[in-house]
Amino acid sequence: MIKKIIVSLCLLFSFSAFAQEGTSSPYSFYGIGDVKFKGTIDTRSMGGVSVFPDSIHLNLQNPAQLASLKLTVFALGGTYANTKSKTETQEEKARRTALDYLAIGIPVGKLGFGFGLIPYSSVGYKIQTLSDDENPIFSRYSGIGGVNKVFVGAGYQLTKKINIGADIQYNFGTIETTNLRYQNVIQYGTREINTSEVSGLNATFGATYQTKINSKFSFFSSLTYSPESEVKLGNRRTIDIIQFSSVGSIDVIERQEVEGIDDTTIKLPSKLALGTGFGQIKKWLIGAEVTFLNTSVTTNRFTDIQGAYFENATRYSLGGYFIPNFNSYSSYFKRITYRAGIRYENTGLVIQGKSITDTAVNAGFGLPLGGIFSKINIGLEMGKRGTTYYNLVEENYFNLSVGLSLSDRWFVKRKID
Questions:
Q1: Fewer Cβ atoms within 10 Å of its own Cβ: the N or the C terminal residue of the chain?
Q2: What's the rounded mean pLDDT across residues 207-236?
Q3: Eight-state DSSP code of residue 16
Q4: Cα dihedral: 167, 168, 170, 171 (round 10)
Q5: Which backbone phi and psi does 51 adopt, to 5 degrees?
Q6: Signal peptide location in the record (predicted)?
Q7: Range of the domain at 25
Q8: What is the pLDDT of residue 8?
Q9: Does 37 score more than 60 pLDDT?
C-alpha cells in the first residue's frame, strides 16, 4: 500500500504541474468562485448520487459513509475540462487540468476516519472588450485563485443499519482579480488589482440507513447537513499606472495602495441533501438525491458589483451502477463497474434577472487494479451551463476525470515474518 501511495503522489505532482487554473468560466467572478467539487469520480459518474455504502471507496460527501469502510483507502482524482463558451456574437474554447481531491480513509472497528485536501472552488477567467468610440478603450478583465479545504472526519456504525458521522473543514486560499484599461492614443494605461485572502471553518453532519428488503435486494437512504458558516476575506486593492513594452509585456510606472478597503465576510450557505437508493449489493444499484442550498445568503467579495445576486439553489441527481460479475475470475470485463447518471441544478447565481442553470449527463467505469479492491475510476461528463440570452455566456463542457482508489489492509500484525 505504501508503494502505491508513493507512486500516486508522484503522479499527483506531475499532474499538478498543469493545474494552474481550475476553471475558465466568467461566472467564477462571483462569490468565492466556481464551486468545482461535486464528489469523488465514482459518485460524480452517477450524477453525484452518494447514497450507496462502499467498503473500498471513500465518500467525501457524507461522513457517515466512513463507517462503511473495511479497508484503508487512499484516493486521488483529477479532471481535464474542455469548455466552449459562447455569446450571441462570439465563441471561445478553453482547456484546463486540475486536481479534484486527495484523501485517506482508515477503518477502526465500528469507526472510520478520513482526512484530506479538496480544491473546493476556482476563479479563472480572461475577458477582453473594445469600445466603439472614435478613440476606442481597450479593457481586459481576469481572475485567478480559489478556495481549498482541508478536512478531517469520522463515521460511526451506530447499529447494523444506521451510520452517523461528521467532519470539520478549514477553508483557505487567495483570489485575485485584475481590471486593465488603456487607449492607443494615450501613453499610459491603468490597472486595478483586487486581492482577497480567504479563511474560515465549516462542518458537515451525516447519517445513513441500510436494510434488507429480502434475500437479494436492499434499500438505502442518506441525510447530509452543513450549517451556514462564514469565511473571512482580507481585502487589498492597488492601482497601477502601466505602459506596454515593445514585446507586449506590462511595465509598472507607478503603484498606489488604496486605503480604506475593508475586510469582508462571505456566508457559505447551509446545505441539506436527501438521498435514497435500491438494488442488489455488488450487482446493481440505482438511486436519487436532492440537495437544497441556502445560497441566497451569499454575497460577492466587493459590494460595488451591480446586476448580480444569489438565490436559493437546488440540485437533482439520478444514477447508479452495474457489475456483471463481481467475483469473476475468467473475465476482466465482468468485474468492471459500469456507472451512469444525470444531474440538473439551479446554481443560485442570478445575473441580469436570469437564473444560471447547469445540466449534465455522466458515465464512468471502475477498472479493477491488481485485484478486486483497488480501482482506476474514469468518469465522463457532458453538460451545459448558462445561456446566450440576456447577453450572457453559455458554456458547453466535456470533462474527463481519472482517479485512483487504492485499498489495502493496514495495522495487521504479521504472523510470519
A1: C
A2: 94
A3: H
A4: 70
A5: -80, -20
A6: 1-19
A7: 2-408
A8: 46
A9: yes
